[in-house]
Amino acid sequence: MNLNEKTIHELHDLLKSKKISALDITKDVIKRMEEIEGLNVFITETKKAALKKAEYIDNEIISKGDFPKLTGIPFSIKDNFCTKGIKTTAGSKMLENYLPPFDATSITKLDEAILVGKTNLDEFAMGSSGENSAYGPTKNPYDLTRVTGGTSSGSAAALASGSSIFTVGTDTGGSVRQPAGFCGVVGLKPTYGRISRYGVIAMASSLDTISLFTKDVEDAAIVLKELAGNDVNDQTTPDVKVDDYEKFLKKDLKGIKLGVPKEYFTGEGVDKEVIRNIEKSITVLNGLGAEIIKVSLPHTDYAIAAYYLIMSSEVSSNMSRYDGIKYGFSDQSGKDLLSVYLDSRKKALGKEVKRRIMLGTFSLSHGYYDKYYAQAQKVRTLVKQDFEKVFDQVDALITPTSPTTAFKIGEKVNDPLAMYMADVFTVPASLAGVPAICVPSGQKNNLPIGMQIIGPHFSEGKIIQIAHAFEQKRGKIDLSLKV
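Above: the chain's sequence. Below: its structure in token form.
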């Protein structure tokens, strides 16, 4: 029995019936971690601590009777979440030896799950492919010559390869949904602020959203319920009731209205086979009782430009703390303070991080603020209003997750604009702060295709309902791992 291939709910049932132990699951996952080392999934592994914790959970929690569904379940987390006493690098040489003195709220909430490692990511969560990590790119488990997507590259690959049962990442402009689509797993970005960002290294603070990867939609409902909620340490987490998301799994799609935005099905660089797959998936949803309505989000074409100006401006601000003085890498070989600043950043930061700092600093500079940053914020408002208007007509939207399947490693590294366009279908929901879920919908040449379901603010239950109904009807997608 390959326990690493099972879902949270399957393993929970086996644990309750005493057929397996948390230690059995953890050992199986660690064995799989060793088998897939060539994918470059993990930056830091916590195998010894995981085995010790599994023994504790078996003896002190599971043996005493009833326990929550995440108890004893091995997971991994993106390496931009602070973990007390465990190295947290954010994929950068700047924080190569940083040991946080505290845990992120997400880590605290998952205290009965078992952390097996910190996963690889684009440096400081800046990228669309997983190639910008200072520790090398993560490879796609379905084709080792291709990317996993970014920025939560290691998290997606860990789940797809069986080296974790669930994983947690961050989604700023598509950093969970896009790699979920490329790796054939479920990726859920909740409403902005639904999960606390406390203890997560900031990239773009008005966009960063704690998100999750799971093997199926039921698992997504389980993990989201555990992580969601108000946190006194994060003022962007509203005091809005957390739903019992598992209850939505039992509902059908009769009476549900689904919008199909025309802007997401046309344009240069969109793979026709991806579009055909999503159109077939829409037919499946229609057959399940959903009403399909054609809609328009007219400002979609401006979303990418607005996003990169806003995001880069916030990056410029957030990255100012990495100056070679406060903490992190410091080069003090120069003769004055300015040399420390410049030399530390020059040696410890990668090209993409520097590119975004420069773009953001320019956008915020005197004489250009109104021309670029302020205009981008106006566009963001228009994008948000597009969603608000369309959600007066429909319950959710159905779109592709990405214009293509996973592309070749190195294919777009010298063309930043082409790389940025890989997020063209995920960025608008991020600008609006609305929830979205990516669910596997098919494959092309053994590469997964993902379908995105977008809902209004705090409609996580509704999009889980739609995704689960589709998933149950769709059945298993025939894919072959290469590791």
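The longest strand covers residues 436-444.
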